Amino acid sequence: MDDEKEGDRNAGSTAxxxxxxxxxxxxxxxLRPQIEVEPTRAPQRLAPHAYALEAAVVxxxxxxxxxxxxxxxxxxxxxxxxxxxxxxxxxxAELEPEMATDPLLPEVCWSWLTGALSxxxxxxxxxSGTVTRASSHYFGGLSERLPASQIEIRASWTPREGLGGxxxxxxxxxxxxxxxxxxxxxxxxxxxxxxVVTLPQRRGPQSR
Length: 208
Description:
The chain is of the alpha+beta class. The protein has 4 helices and 6 strands. It has one domain (2-183). It has helices at residues 2-10, 17-27, 105-119, 169-184, and strands at 35-40, 49-59, 62-78, 83-95, 124-136, 148-159.
């Protein structure tokens, strides 16, 4: 596929070994069966090297949440990142309208991101981002549609580098998928996670 070729090009033979190793770890990750992941076109101007994945949480014919995860690498390091790697994400999910009125929803969603990383024992730094909620009401020729509400998380963080200067990107991807599943309202993936609070699943298909 074209997207896969683009991903291969970004992680090609001209890339530093540390970046190639980080990308290979992403490609080899095994994730929950409800989460479909595939490579997509990576941004070209954010860093000398980039690799991107997009994912959707699928339940039958419904997309409960979707997102994009981008791995950036600058071999010379980046002052704002305080490292040579950076992970950038966008996560979106539709909500029941009443959930969008919860004043604590943005803080809760942000804590899900940092909590997902911490729960996997991952060291990270310089987290930043936004949580946006939006509601749509339809009129005129679209008046038969029910009101729709959506949460959107945009964030970035610096994964701590391990041996050979390579971060554990597979574990970061797994944590990111934990976030996707939580936003989508899926039940916890394993024992010990029963106390995790998730958003209720929105009825009906979500447009991507």
